[in-house]
């Protein structure tokens, strides 16, 4: 804890009258330390409460018996979880979602890595146009491409196969992922690769040994983005998959709501099942995720 | 050297472009199999058929039972069940109509029937019904509603069930306050006032202000005024001065006798709010019966048809009718029709509606004991089939009906509740859009 007087630095020379001295990091920290703790924690607590209430509401409905109006989940029951997992096939939906999300993660990361490397390290004639096209593709909503995609997958005999959803998700993830990865690769000095070449590595080996380890935060950021997006995406699974045994969690959640009635307990339990993997993924990768995004943001 | 590099680049570009064009052409050159353009065929009456359930999830179990019964009776036909979430059924059909992959049989409610039929995806069913064992065994009122919703005299949907607007009320709160059942509009408004005690967070009514608000509001309006037709010549009666006055009275309940959060109520929030709070009345349909039963128990509530006028005259708007349609693109229509016939038989139709809590379309099924024991369904069946009931047919046949009654006017209804629009402005806007849509429809249908 720094006291008010401690660490005060007397100016060596008077500053020019016309110029305000820039606050040093030390001064900023001191000013921050002078703020009473309650002024920091109270707004944060209110914000946290505001954020957590919906989660509590979901937990409440998932854990209290059907018909209960209690504000605490007591007596606690896991009947809703049992119902959605066994009767409503969420066990199967969960497996399918995991498979689709993991496959999308791997495919997106690998292809984005190759494309991103090319964008970062090579100059070619249509590079600017290609980058612009990648950016513009982000403005096209998936729903607009449903019919052509449906026809392409039908021609390829891939309707009602998890492969169709994996390919569609990967294709939609790639533009942003390639742009991000190319930014991360540009941050790795080219001289490191050149040094590896001098030591006898070919381009691929130099990339694998020198560049790839430095890209870990970026890869985690891009991979987690791809995973979460594929995990939550509803439209492609609804349109390209028909068999009940191939459906995913978001489609399963929607089937818990009919046109006239909703089983809120089952819906809340399904919502928790859908949220848990995403929460776990973010809990583990949080550190690298922040590093990854900020690294990409410094030099684009 | 430069020239050769340029040439090879040009060649590579040409190959790439050629590949892209070839792939695109292959994709666009779809033969239309399973899309709206495909004529399909009768088939052998055996083999596999695909059935899309437009209320998948909630009705999956009962449909699987019916399919198991069917496959037992017809062992040479296999039915592939596909459950589609109710909210996404329309977009799934639209994508398949354009892109291919339509089913042989599908659940198509009257609310989306016109949009699917107008794209040429459905097989006319009049002659099949006439030649079938179902002839004379289906509710005439529901068949009329199905025909009207399809946009004319052709039957594109065999009705399976009818829903009905229902006024759910808390018998415990009514008894405590010494109130009569809200069977007439006067009793309804009086009860809404007397049950409201804002300090105790008690309200007489919960109004639907969010998604799906228009149809219940129109039901309340026509129910109060007794106007029995939606059209007067080519003009809608929706903005008749009597209707304007009735709507003013109805929306005046907002905040006075209802929670202020009602402005955003879709049916989910409205039902959840009623099931967990101290609100006297809720206007929804038969579909939420099981939710109320679970939440409140059988002794604390009743479901009755919407109120009548003081002299007992009952006028109500038509409710969406669930049904099954045969798709033109089916290559096995004979087997698909057998499935529809089977699902509409008295035994199976009764089983389905008992599970769904709706009124069976098969008149033999409508006599079954379970209906006599389920009071809301019994009263709804009596109201629907009663000779004194006048039904105002909403124009489900207009391809723009869904847009007009949802995206175009739901935000206006919220403005009306919030006092930013008058009832007359709201109904005039609605009437203008309906009149234009009707004129357009008439122009295209001779």
What would you say this structure looks like, in words?
The complex is a heterodimer of chains A (about 300) and B (about 450). With about 300 residues, chain A is mostly helical. Chain A has 2 domains: about 55 residues, no CATH class; about 210 residues, MetI-like (MetI-like fold). Helices cover about 70% and strands about 0% of the residues of chain A. Chain B has about 450 residues and is α/β, with parallel strands linked by helices. Chain B has 2 domains: about 180 residues, Periplasmic binding protein-like II (D-Maltodextrin-Binding Protein, domain 2); about 210 residues, 3-Layer(aba) Sandwich (D-Maltodextrin-Binding Protein, domain 2), CATH 3.40.190. Chain B has 19 helices and 14 strands. In chain B, a hairpin with a 2-residue loop joins strand 7 and strand 8. In chain B, helix 4 crosses helix 6. The N and C termini of chain B lie far apart (about 70 Å). Chains A and B meet through helix 6 and helix 12 of A and helix 1, strand 2, helix 3, helix 11 and helix 12 of B.
Low-confidence parts of chain B: 1-5, 19-32
What shape does the CA trace of chain B take?
globular
- The figure for the number of domains of chain B is 2
Query: Which architecture name of the largest domain in chain A does CATH use?
Result: Orthogonal Bundle
| Whole-number total of structural domains of chain A | 2
| CATH fold label of the largest domain in chain B | D-Maltodextrin-Binding Protein, domain 2
Structural descriptors:
heterodimer; A: 300 residues; mainly alpha; MetI-like fold; 2 domains; disordered N terminus; B: 446 residues; alpha/beta; D-Maltodextrin-Binding Protein, domain 2; six-stranded mixed beta sheet; four-stranded mixed beta sheet; 19 helices; 14 strands
Sequence-ordered SSE layout with sheet pairings:
The complex is a heterodimer of chains A (300) and B (446).
Chain A: H1 25-33, H2 37-63, H3 79-87, H4 90-121, H5 127-137, H6 146-155, H7 162-186, H8 190-198, H9 203-214, H10 216-232, H11 235-240, H12 249-254, H13 264-298
Helix pairs in contact in A: 2-13, 3-13, 4-7, 4-10, 5-7, 7-10, 7-13, 8-9, 10-13
Chain B: H1 2-28, E1 47-53, H2 60-73, E2 77-83, H3 89-99, E3 105-107, H4 110-117, H5 126-130, H6 140-150, E4 158-162, E5 165-170, H7 171-177, H8 185-194, E6 203-206, H9 214-225, E7 231-232, E8 235-236, H10 241-251, H11 267-276, E9 279-285, H12 289-296, E10 301-305, E11 314-317, E12 321-326, H13 333-343, H14 346-356, E13 359-360, H15 369-373, H16 375-385, E14 389-392, H17 401-408, H18 410-417, H19 423-444
Parallel strand pairs in B: 1-2, 1-3, 6-9, 11-14
Antiparallel strand pairs in B: 3-12, 4-12, 4-13, 5-9, 5-10, 7-8
Helix pairs in contact in B: 4-6, 9-10
């Amino acid at each position: 804890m720094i006291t008010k007087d401690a660490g005060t630095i007397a100016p060596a020379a008077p500053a020019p009258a016309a110029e305000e001295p820039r606050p040093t990091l030390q001064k900023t920290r001191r000013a921050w330390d002078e703020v009473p703790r309650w002024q920091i924690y109270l707004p944060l607590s209110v914000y946290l409460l505001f954020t957590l209430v919906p989660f509590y509401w979901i937990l409440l409905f998932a854990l209290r018996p059907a018909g209960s109006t209690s504000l605490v989940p007591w007596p606690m029951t896991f009947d809703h979880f049992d119902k959605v997992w066994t009767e409503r096939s969420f066990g199967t939906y969960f497996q399918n979602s995991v498979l689709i999300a993991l496959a999308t993660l791997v495919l997106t990361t690998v292809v984005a890595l190759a494309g991103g490397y090319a964008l970062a390290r090579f100059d070619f004639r249509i590079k600017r146009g290609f980058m612009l096209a990648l950016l513009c593709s982000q403005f096209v909503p998936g729903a607009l491409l449903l019919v052509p995609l449906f026809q392409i997958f039908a021609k390829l005999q891939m309707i009602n196969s998890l492969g169709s959803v994996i390919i569609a998700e990967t294709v939609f993830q790639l533009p942003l992922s390639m742009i991000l990865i190319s930014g991360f690769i540009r941050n790795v000095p080219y001289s490191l690769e050149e040094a590896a070449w001098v030591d006898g590595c070919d381009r691929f080996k130099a990339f694998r040994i020198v560049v790839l380890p430095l890209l870990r935060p970026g890869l985690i950021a891009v991979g987690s983005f791809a995973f979460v997006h594929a995990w939550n995406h509803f439209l492609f699974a609804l349109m390209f998959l028909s068999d009940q045994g191939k459906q995913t969690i978001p489609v399963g959640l929607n089937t818990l709501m009919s046109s006239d009635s909703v089983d809120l307990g089952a819906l809340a339990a399904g919502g928790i099942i859908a949220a848990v993997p995403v929460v776990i993924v973010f809990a583990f990768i949080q550190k690298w995720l922040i590093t990854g995004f900020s690294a990409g943001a410094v030099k684009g | 050297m430069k020239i050769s590099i340029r040439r090879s680049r040009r060649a590579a570009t040409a190959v790439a472009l050629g590949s892209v064009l070839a792939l695109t052409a292959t994709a666009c050159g779809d033969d239309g199999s399973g899309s709206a353009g495909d004529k399909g065929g009768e088939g052998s009456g055996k083999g596999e058929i695909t059935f899309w359930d437009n209320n998948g999830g909630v009705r999956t179990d009962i449909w699987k039972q019916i399919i198991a019964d069917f496959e037992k009776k017809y062992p040479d036909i296999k039915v592939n069940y596909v459950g589609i979430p109710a909210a996404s059924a329309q977009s799934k059909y639209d994508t398949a109509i354009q892109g291919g992959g339509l089913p042989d049989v599908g659940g198509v409610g009257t609310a989306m029937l016109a949009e699917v039929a107008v794209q040429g995806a459905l097989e006319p069913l009049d002659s099949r019904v006439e030649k079938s064992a179902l002839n004379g065994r289906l509710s005439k009122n529901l068949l009329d509603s199905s025909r009207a919703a399809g946009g004319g005299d052709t039957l594109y949907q065999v009705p399976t069930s009818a829903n009905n607007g229902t006024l759910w009320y808390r018998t415990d709160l009514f008894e405590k306050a010494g109130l009569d059942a809200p069977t007439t509009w006067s009793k309804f408004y009086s009860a809404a006032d007397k049950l409201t005690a804002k300090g105790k967070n008690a309200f007489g009514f919960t109004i639907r202000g969010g998604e799906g608000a228009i149809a219940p509001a129109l039901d309340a309006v026509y129910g109060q005024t007794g106007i029995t037709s939606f059209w007067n010549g080519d003009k809608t009666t929706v903005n008749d001065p009597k209707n304007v006055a009735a709507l003013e009275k109805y929306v005046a309940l907002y905040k006075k006798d209802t929670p202020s959060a009602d402005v955003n109520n879709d049916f989910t929030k409205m039902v959840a709010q009623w099931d967990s709070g101290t609100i006297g009345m809720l206007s929804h349909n038969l579909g939420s019966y099981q939710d109320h039963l679970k939440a409140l128990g059988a002794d604390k509530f009743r479901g009755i048809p919407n109120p009548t006028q003081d002299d007992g005259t009952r006028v109500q708007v038509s409710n969406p009718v669930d049904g099954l349609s045969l798709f033109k693109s089916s290559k096995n229509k004979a087997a698909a029709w057998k499935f529809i016939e089977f699902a509409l038989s008295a035994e199976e139709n009764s089983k389905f509606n008992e599970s769904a809590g709706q009124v069976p379309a098969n008149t033999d099924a409508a006599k079954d004991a379970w209906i006599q024991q389920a009071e809301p369904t019994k009263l709804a069946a009596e109201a629907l089939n009663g000779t004194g009931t006048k039904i105002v047919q909403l124009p489900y046949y207009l391809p723009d009906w869904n847009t007009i009654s949802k995206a175009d006017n739901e935000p206006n209804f919220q403005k009306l509740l919030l006092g930013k629009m008058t009832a007359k402005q709201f109904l005039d806007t609605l009437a203008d859009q309906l009149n234009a849509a009707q004129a357009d429809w008439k122009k295209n249908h001779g």
